[in-house]
Amino acid sequence: MAKQKGIVPLEGTIGNVTFYKSKAGYLAREKGGVDGTRIATDPAFARTRENGSEFGRAGKAGRLLRTSLRALLLSINDTYMSGRLTREFVK
């Protein structure tokens, strides 16, 4: 993913490139990809749907753990903790 290093921080779309602001700073990415309805129905994307389902289960498990430990996690200011936790559940 591209990072913007210019003086002017851009947001929006120019041609096929989308500029946006995230917690990591101003970023740019190219538009593209496969239509969502094709991924949901095409037999060629069966493995993709399977992987998405697995990732969804890992996310729900992470959410359950974070909810159960909420009192302990309130004082932690880490925006990427849920992503790292989901990664461990996927493993």
Walkthrough of the structure:
The structure is a single chain. The protein has about 90 residues and is an alpha+beta fold. It has 4 helices and 4 strands; from the N terminus they run ββββαααα. It has helices spanning about 35-40, 45-70, 70-75, 80-90; strands spanning about 1-5, 10-15, 15-20, 25-30. Strands 1-4-3-2 form a 4-stranded antiparallel β-sheet, with no helix packed on it. Strand 3 (about 15-20) and strand 4 (about 25-30) form a beta hairpin. It is flat. The model has no long low-confidence stretch (mean pLDDT about 85).
The gist of it:
The protein has 91 residues and is an alpha+beta fold. It has helices at 36-41, 46-68, 70-73, 81-90, and strands spanning 2-3, 12-14, 17-22, 25-30. Helix 2 crosses helix 4.
In round numbers, the mean pLDDT is 87
Q: Work out the strand percent.
A: 15-25%
Helix count from the secondary structure assignment: 4
Shape: flat
**Largest sheet geometry:** 4 strands, antiparallel
Name the helicity range.
40-55%
User: What is the SS-derived class?
Assistant: alpha+beta
Write down the Rg. 18 Å
SSE pattern, N- to C-terminal: EEEEHHHH
Q: Strand arrangement, largest sheet?
A: 1-4-3-2
Distance between the ends: 24 Å
